[in-house]
Amino acid sequence: MSMATMTDTQSPALHVADSHDLIRVHGARENNLKDVSIELPKRRLTVFTGVSGSGKSSLVFDTIAAESQRMINETYSAFVQGFMPTLARPEVDVLEGLTTAIIVDQERMGANPRSTVGTATDANALLRILFSKLGQPHIGPPTAFSFNVPRRTASGSMTADKGAGERLVVRNAVYHGGMCPRCEGMGSVTDFDLSALYDDTKSLSEGALTIPGYSMDGWYGRIFSGSGYFNMDKPIAKFTKKELHDLLYREPTKIKVEGINLTYEGVIPRIQKSMLSKDVDAMQPHIRAFVERAVTFTACPECDGTRLSAEARSSKIKGKNIADVCAMQITDLADWVRELDEPSVAPLLTGLQHLLDSFAEIGLGYLSLDRPAGTLSGGEAQRTKMIRHLGSSLTDVTYVFDEPTIGLHPHDIERMNDLLLQLRDKGNTVLVVEHKPEVIAIADHVVDLGPGAGTGGGEVVFEGTVEGLRESDTITGRHIDDRAILKESVRSSSGALEIRSAATHNLQDVDVDIPLGVLCVVTGVAGSGKSSLIDGSVSGRDGVVAIDQGAIRGSRRSNPATYTGLLDPIRKAFAKANGVKPALFSANSEGACPTCNGAGVVYTELGVMATVESTCEECEGKRFQASVLEYKLGGRNIAEVLAMSVTEAEEFFGAGEARTPAAHAILGRLADVGLGYLSLGQPLTTLSGGERQRLKLATQMAEKGSVYVLDEPTTGLHLADVEQLLGLLDRLVDSGKSVIVIAHHQAVMARADWIIDLGPGAGHDGGRIVFEGTAAELVAARSTLTGQHLAEYVGT
Q: Which long-range contacts (CB under 8 A, 24 or more apart) does 621-628 make?
């Protein structure tokens, strides 16, 4: 009987349990939110929009998702919670109807040198079991195929407690591991350029070692002189073979220095442990510069860069070993797995096939499993994290996405939309922070934050349907149907940057001339080889300034003023005006409030409970000693200056008593990239992804480069801000610079003077130039995927 034919007396009353169909937020005040109250429908797709910095992430991630995670963590025992990150309760009055939140963010994947796409997604674990069951010859358990497990041999006796206390004696029992012994599973070996480690004309006591941190005034000096292995006053050039070996390669040896037990170790093994075990991107700039200067990484000759021992590579299925399989493009690997018909491992093959097909479905079929996880772009990392949720049987979960379309070509965005709808249709609540009109269009519910950014934002300016948003007079509503217009006339190039036979990653011997003196856009579907072309052949050249999407690494003590170098001229101006030293005007140095050490807040550790953060009572959160705040410049003290927004500060340092040209120039660049609303002292940890990239852009615009390379600069930008960014790029080109942009945003393509389109597909179906010319020619030809989507966008 259908519902319509039921009589009223039979109609089922709504069960009280089904009435909780909303997530209610009342009085959210995290970061810049101003008492926000909203109700979100469950089991629907809600998109959050608004200019960059309007409070979207504060509402979605720092309030809704954070509270959900905190409450789940509280269900574990206090013992387990002690090992988990402690989360403070967000600033909000009421949160009701929350469900378990799964956060899929854009944080780059842990750039551990041992982590690959395969180890990050469990694909390797399944393959290792497969090879241990079917590989011929059979060499051992799954660990025998893992490049993170060394092979170990044990001897000795073991007591098995079986009542009679049986003793087992083992001689040379082998525990199998697949790690290549030469490179320890890293895939590359390191060669040191000794001239970059020391100056052999000097002696150790004269400071011959040029390695960061190795000064002879500290502990290293005591250890070296106390070891007695060499004469501290003899130039290194005159060392005997043994002395040089002891200095560079000696294995750890226990020594006694001034009655203290210490360990002496050669310089090279020490560097390998302390510096090379970290990812290059995570190093401090001066250490990274040293590593790039002193160390060359070459593929390990013993395992050919596969990370696996010869034994692990000897076991094969259908003529392929595990290294061959991991090096295959995932789409090809999926076909290979399909052909294996082995009833004994049927469930394993089904699971593996599903996982590999998910890669292809999400548009990552062009990757291979041996690709290091640290080399994935933000968008790729986010989609890799999505894979584990696609096949999940959980429903009634809240999925939270942070701009899932980053790094996606318009062609791939359609696929992403299908995935988001698939997750919703399984009965999940999907919350998406997004700027792209294509994604906003599929929302069931839209929440628009604004009206401005930073302190000018933090309010809900619209809530309702997409149609309602179009008619509303908010910034997003006005810009949602913006369509770029192709340029009437394009600039002509002043020269060319020649690239010949580029073959990085999937590039197929590409020859291309990149025009200089113009705005050149490199485009193509995700995985077509754009970054390989630009990073591999352009970025390292002289005079090229590359601005990528890598996260800014900064602690709560870093802020826009310290990051851009703006604080130096400000401190000097204060010091000069008051006749005192500049260090007083740094909250990380002498001027810091003694109670909170210049942090502005005091942290109270409560053991297994969440750490409590409270504003420091002595400086009231101003971070400085009271005496420092008495020194003024232009009638303002240092804390008041750091509380100013970029726009206010630009005016303040531009004229009058406080005129400081060096500071004014930096502030001008910050305003240029659209960060006028940021306050100078706002901690870097509170900035959104788009803000961080623009902060980088502002800092590096000062470098003496003639060619700027930008990797997707529209990331995290609202449609209204894209216009401002394009204006900035035009100004850069007009001032005589060459700008090369990797971009998917059609508005950027439409403004380009020259477009280079890679493709036609991704992975080994890409890597070729499919179009070179102006945007108008690309639209007219419509011969490539990019051409078709751009034509649709500009409405020709």
A: 622/593, 623/587, 623/592, 623/593, 623/596, 623/598, 623/599, 623/681, 624/585, 624/587, 624/591, 624/592, 624/593, 624/598, 625/591, 625/592, 625/593, 625/594, 628/584, 628/585, 628/591
- Report residues of the chain scoring pLDDT below 50: 1-10
Gap between the Cα atoms of 436 and 666, Å rounded = 31
Strands 445-450 and 36-41: unpaired
List the structure tokens of 743.
Answer: 């971009």
DSSP state string for 160-190: E-SSS-EEEEEEEEEE---B-TTTTTSSEEE
Positive or negative, the CA dihedral 132, 133, 137, 138 is positive
- Tell me, what amino acid is at 612? V
List pLDDT tens digits, range 457-468. 999 999 999 999
Look up tokens 């190093």; give the residue: 283
Tokens of 777: 């020619």
Say how far apart CA 714 and CA 709 lie, in whole Å: 13
Q: Could you tell me which residues come within 8 angstroms of residue 479 by beta carbon, excluding any fewer than 6 positions away?
A: 718, 719, 720
Report CA 398 to chain centroid distance, whole Å.
23
pTM of structure: 0.81
Beta-bridge partner residues of 209: 198
CB of 162 closer than 8 Å to CB of 156: no
Write the CB contacts of 106 (distance below 8 Å, at least 6 apart in sequence).
378, 379, 381, 382, 402, 403, 406, 689
User: Which residue in this structure is represented by tokens 């550790």?
Assistant: 605
pLDDT at 446: 98
Cα dihedral sign, 302-306-308-311: negative
Q: With beta carbons less than 8 A apart as the criterion, state whether 23 and 98 touch.
A: yes
Bridge partners of 166?
160
CB 385 within 8 A of CB 376: no
pLDDT > 70 in the chain, percent: 94
* Partners of 25 in the β-ladder: 38, 95
Q: In this structure, are residues 446 and 49 in contact, taking their beta carbons and an 8 Å threshold?
A: yes
Residue in the structure block whose two tokens are 């005091």: 602
The beta strand positions in 227-307, using DSSP E, are 253-257, 260-264, 295-299
The predicted pLDDT at position 282 comes to 66
Helix (H) or strand (E) holding 102: strand 101-104
Measured distance CA(475)–CA(489) in Å, rounded: 29
Within a 10 A sphere around the Cβ of 46, how many other Cβ atoms? 22
At 25-36, the pLDDT tens digits run: 999 999 899 999
Hey, CA dihedral for 452, 456, 457, 461, is it positive or negative? Answer: negative
Q: Is residue 414 exposed (0-12), middle (13-18) or buried (19+ Cβ within 10 Å)? A: middle
Integer angstrom CA distances of residue 729 from 105, 263, 517, 520, 740:
28, 55, 12, 11, 10
φ, ψ (nearest 5 deg) of residue 294: -100, -20
CB-neighbour burial class of residue 713 (10 A; exposed 0-12, middle 13-18, buried 19+)? buried
Whole-number Å distance between alpha carbons of 340 and 333: 11
Looking at residue 408, what is its pLDDT?
84
Sequence-ordered list of residues with C-beta below 8 angstroms from that of 443, at least 6 positions apart, any chain: 45, 46, 47, 432, 466
Locate 555 and state its tokens.
């602690």
With 0-12 CB in 10 A as exposed, 13-18 as middle and 19+ as buried, what is 324?
Answer: middle
Q: Residue 414, Cα to own-chain centre: how many angstroms?
A: 24
